[in-house]
Design a protein that fits this description.
The chain is an alpha/beta fold. The protein has helices at 18-26, 46-56, 70-80, 99-109, 151-159, 175-178, 189-199, 227-246, 252-275, 282-292, 295-316, and strands at 5-11, 33-39, 60-64, 85-88, 94-95, 115-124, 127-132, 169-171, 204-207, 213-218. Helix 5 runs parallel beside helix 9 (252-275).
Length: 317
Amino acid sequence: MKKKVSFIIPTYNYGHLIGDTLNCLLHQSFSNWEAIIIDDGSTDNTSAVINFFLNIDSRFIYSRQDQKGVSAARNYGLKLATGYYIQFLDADDLITKNKISSQLKFLEAHPDVDVCLVNTRFFESNNQAKLYTDFALQNNKTLPKIDGSGYQNISTFVECNPMVIQSPLFKKENIETIGYFNEDMKYVEDWDFWFRFAINNFSFGYLDDEGALALVRVHADSATQKSNLIIVSQGEFRKFVNGYIKNSLLPDHQKKDLILKNKKLLINTFKLIMAETGLKEIEDFALYYRKMNNFNAFCLALIKAINLKRKSLYLNS
């Protein structure tokens, strides 16, 4: 029998959706799994929905904690997991029937690969049959395909988070090197987590198979909808990125290039959000300053934002 896979499913007040998520596990073609559901203090009918699944399949495991956030819930799940492989799955999302079995075959065929990734598709909450390649449901773009290890992968991760949380299947033993989720981070905690795989030179393998998909539900409560909060959180994340790069085994010239790229992206990200912020919104600008944690970068972003706003007003006049 193939090695066990531990699904880790954090949930908070998703009683209306988590049934679909757990049901997709029952239909997996791979059967040697456990699903560790961590209820992060839900106040809706989540426990009642989960109890239904607990009664019909012993592979479901349920634990409840006081509300501490998704990172704490995932970390708790990681500590409870007994599987050789780890698969994260949010309580509102799905995976296709053959995702796990196909990834396991891929990993067996490529023993040097630590993390197996698959394609991601997005769907409207009320229509699971129609799939799209992007969150905007426009089929205008796809996520980058990460493969291999080294500088180019790290550079991509500096630029963006190229994967959704339920795409990767990875070896639990990697946590000994990577560490757990940063429980103080919000919204980009998964980006930080996967970045540590890249900077520690773990090998990614991309399985391009339309039968093995990560499926992301698009609805009003999706974390990705909270765009401004995510953008602000990137400032804090990029501070950690500099530290990861400096402490890595990369050659000095590559470290220099990546740190410069990270700074430029930090400035550009906050330039755009500052340009959309009223100049009298002092509290917002104070928040941006705290999250950027870099006086020079903050000033550059502010100057660029003012210029961008000035150009916009001129073009619209």
